[in-house]
Structure formats: structure tokens, C-alpha cells
Specification:
The complex is a heterodimer of chains A (about 500) and B (about 140). Chain A contains 16 helices and 21 strands. By secondary structure, chain A is an alpha/beta fold. Chain A has an 8-stranded parallel beta sheet. In chain A, strands 6-20-21 form a 3-stranded mixed beta sheet. A two-stranded antiparallel sheet of chain A has the order 1-4. Chain B folds into 2 domains: about 1-55 and about 120-140, Alpha-Beta Plaits (2-Layer Sandwich), CATH 3.30.70; about 60-115, Alpha-Beta Plaits (2-Layer Sandwich). Chain B has helices at about 15-25, 30-35, 65-70, 95-100, 125-130, and strands spanning about 1-5, 45-50, 50-55, 75-80, 80-85, 105, 110-115, 135-140. In chain B, the strands form 4 sheets. Chain B has a two-stranded antiparallel ribbon with strand order 1-8. In chain B, strands 2-3 form a two-stranded antiparallel sheet. The longest helix of chain B has 9 residues, at about 15-25. Classes of the chains: A alpha/beta (about 500), B alpha+beta (about 140).
Chain lengths: ~500, ~140
Amino acid sequence: MAIEYLYPQFEVLRNPDRCIACRVCERQCANEVHHFDTDLQKMVSDESKCVNCHRCVSLCPTRALKITKTNHQFRENANWTGEVIEEIYRQANSGGTLLSSMGNPKNYPIYWDKMLINASQVTNPSIDPLREPMEIRTFLGKKPTTIERDENGKIIPNLSPRLELDIPVMFSAMSYGSISYNAHESLARASKAMGTYYNTGEGGLHEDFYKWGDNTIVQVASGRFGVEKDYLDAGAAIEIKIGQGAKPGIGGHLPGTKVASDISRTRMIPEGTDAISPAPHHDIYSIEDLRQLVYSLKEATAYKKPVIVKISAVHNVAAIASGIARSGADIIAIDGYRGGTGAAPTRIRDNVGIPIALALASVDQRLREEGIRDNVSIVVGGSIRNSADIIKAIALGADAVYIATAALLSLGCHLCRTCQNGKCNWGIATQRPELVKRLNPDIGSERLINLLTAWGHEIREMMGGMGINSIEALRGNRLMLRGIGLNEKELEILGIKHAGE
Amino acid sequence: MKRVYVNEKWCLGCHLCEYNCAFANSGVDDMVKALKGKTIAPRIRVEESDSINFAVSCRHCDNPLCVKGCISGALSIQDGVISIDSDKCVGCYTCVLSCPYGCISTSEAGAVQKCELCTKNADGIPQCVAGCPNNAIVFEER
């Protein structure tokens, strides 16, 4: 028999005084951790199968369960940590690339937490958002540089196509395939209710969801899954995906087992075939090539829809963004290294890319210096965790933000980071019908609406505190930020002063 | 009248409704004390087969066969809710036989038991509905 090198990561602690053996844990765990032992007449658990998703914990009616990290350990070593050793065992066992899900969990600096927000005192008094109007409506797209008038002096509306957001938060790209039908429906319905947009990701648009097209951003990625005329026409905007924060520089792979009938029809590929997105777009090797695709898509949709180009935040992101701003794109989306994924090679997720706050500051600065900032709007994503992160992003120069991990959390995700297994107990990152039905979109959409509503209140509250009553006045207003615990270089890149200055 | 309805589409087969029902009607204020070590006899039951699950409880029919068939007048309709007066019940089980949904069962306390929409216990609102994690059981006007 083979040697088992890996000890289970978690322990399932069951309080026997509380357990009433109702077996809800057993019925709800797709990993088959729990079962009722008829000989012992009690519930028993196999912790080696536990991924720590908390489904059993959340549904246990008597709070008899909790999951803890095992205290089993290797001899302490600050360099060769338990995680490093186990990864080597795993690879020595399988010979394969390590896979992970969701965003980079490593202990890198979180720049949002190293910036503080201003508030008014005495002069320039603060504003009470409960008593006075507070404008957070946001328009994304090219800003006109000139005002044209007709012979009667009336302004000729020469606006480029744009997106109108009631709150400067959109749901970022997650494909149908990586997440479930019910997760998509929840996002679509919440977007409509909140006056914002969700994003199809690269998996095409399910035929049932065309009715939410006015709140949908349709994505064109390197695999071009599900892309056709009706699909492009259905969305409010088209996003060309060049890169993703969790895995810059590489493509994607949805295993054939997940390409069931609905997904195969939506992606327009045969059932059961692997859906492979190449690393690059095979027709884009330069900004000129990108421009061709931008204009092909605009031509195909009669110049009625803004085009977004999404890139991941990498080392020379400012120069790349400058190129994109000249390519005819209307919006640049930048995804930071904390951005989530349904599956990515662990080494890439944990080591490639840069923090979104630094990327945003340098892109905004570069586009201003080159006088092309108004050519495009900037949308940032990659771990926007709360409304304060949004305020900071907008003050650094973002027009709006993309959220996805936060959205999934509100749908029940517990960040167990095993999406790649396809057995999501919360009905989000799975295609198994009995698991998908666990996410009722009536509940899911309401929770998303609640989250955005709460953030909207907080954004208005913080703006009021700064004495700002329009989000436009906060945009790129870096004087509203101060750094804390940052060095000179970091402050220079972020373009902010240190606290106390 | 508001009734308990079941959406098979959203039922997970977790059986929590059965435990919430048994707890609500136990008269005990702690779920562990009420249910630990006991075989529960809930008034709502999850029917399941392969991948289909749904909960079944009294429909509170407009023309209920159980009330018609009751020989002692123990079953009656009060404001649309079919309730049982266990003092009057003689235990003939005619209602058990006549209910087309199988929603009346024998009980340890009285002769028979059935869902009374939690109107007779301390909760006052149906606890199967309140505790359903996926809105698969709803209490509404239709």
C-alpha cells in the first residue's frame, strides 16, 4: 500500500452533547465527510475529505459542528513551512501542476489598508447624506473633448456610447461553466435591480439570460466561446479579455466533464469537449491588432456599444494601458493580482502580477501625463473588499470598480478555494444539478442587492464626511488619501502624501 | 388565506423542516433537549427518490375529506386552518385513511396529529417555513 504523506488539513469538531443526529450535515456535504454510523448510533466524520466550506456548520440546527485547522505539524521551520513541504509531496505524488482557486492568499501588502481617507472639520463642512443629495451615478466611456453646436447654438449630442451606473460597482467576469446557472441569474437580477452590470465571462450568454442584456457585459476572450452577432448585440458593452489578475499570461481550461448540454450550447462547442482558452488571442500581437479587434466589434454592433479591454495588472501596466487608450477602446479594466479564479496554477496565482492599487495609480498618472485620460474610463478589480476600498480606488483615479469575490461571498461562498473540484456545496462553482439548486436566485439576488445597497450608503457617508457631494469630485482626488506605513517610493507611485503631511 | 406551499425546484432534501416542525411542536424551548436521542414524528415529511425531493404537509383543503370523514367532530376548519381537538378524537383513523396527501399521522400525545400552521404552539408562524434554508417552503396567499 502506498504511503500517505498528507495529513488532513482540518478537524471536524462535533459537540456530542448538541448533535441530534438529524443528518443534515451528511445530506449537505458533497465531499461525503459525514455519515451516520448505525452500529454506533451516532454521526461520524472523515476529516480527510473536508475542504472547510462550512456548509455543514451553517446548516447544523444546533451549532454542534465547527471546523478547525489541524494542529498536527512538521518540525517548525520558517523556511520549509508545512505548506511548502506538502506541496512537494503532492507534486512528487502526481507529477502535475498545482491547481488553486480564488485569489492570491499570500501575505503580500494590502495597499488599501495602508491608505487613510480624509474628513472635513470646521472649514469646508461635511455633508449629511441623509439630508442632502449625494450623487454617485457614474458614466463609463470616452469623454467628449469638444462641444459642437448647430446653427441655432444648440449643443449637438456627440457622446460616444457609454454605460450608466447607479452605483460605481459592477460584477466582474465569471463564466457560465465556472459558476452555476443560479449564480449567474442572481448576478443578472441584482444588476438590473441596482442599475449596474454583470459580466458573462468567456463562457457565452445562456439563452435564458438575453432578457437581462441591458445589464450585461458580454465578453470576448481568446477562446471566443459563444461569440456571435446576437451575443454581441445582446450586451450593453463588449469586453475583450486579454488577461485575468489571478493568472496573467496564461489561458484557461474548463474540463470536458463540466461541458454538459447547457454549457456546450452556450459556449457553442460539442458536449464533453475540453473548453481551452489559449494564452494569447491568436489575432492580437500588437496594439494595432487590438485596435482591429476593437473596431471589428464596434463595426459588428453599429458603434452603439462601448468596448472594454480587460488586462491584468503586470509590471509595465501603465505603458500597456496607454496603448489601449489609443486603440479605440472606451474603457480599460485592470485586474489586480488578488483577483479570483475558478482554477489557476498555484505558482502563477501566487507569484505573478502586481497590486491593483499601484497599477491603478500608475495607469491614471500615465494617461493624465499623456493627455489621454479622457479617452477611456478606468475600472479596477482584483479584491475590492468593501466600500472603503472603493472610495480609495476612486480617489486614486478609478471610474468604477469590479467585484466578484465579494459578490460570491454574499451568495454564500466561504472561500474554501476548491472551486476546481466542481463540488461546491454552496451551489456556486459547480454544475451538478443537485448542488446548483442549493442557490435559489430569489435569495441570491436579494443578498447581492443588500450588499450593494449597504455599500452605497457607506460610500455616500464617507463622501459626505469629506465634504464631497458628487462622486465626480472624488475621482482622482488623491488629496483625500494619506499613506500610512508606506515608504517614499510607494507614496510616489500612489501619488499621495503620508499621514501627518 | 395564507397556506404553506412547497417549491420542489428548490428543495434540497436536507430534512431541516422535519426537525424544525418536531421542535416547534415539542413544547420545549431548546432543540437539543427536545430532540436529542428521540425518533421524531414531524407533521411535515420530505418525500424523496433519486434527485427529487419535496416536503409534504397538510394542504388545508377548502373541502377537506378528513373533516368530512371525522366521526367525532374532532377535526374542524377554523379560519381556513384545519385543526384537531384531541379531546374529541376517538382514534378511529378515518382521517388518516381519507387524506389523499398522507398528511395526518398517529401521535404519541393524542390520537392523531397534523400540521396546524404552528397556530397552537409558541411560535405562531410555521417553523418549517422559517427554517427552510432555500425558500423551498413558503407561507403565502395564492
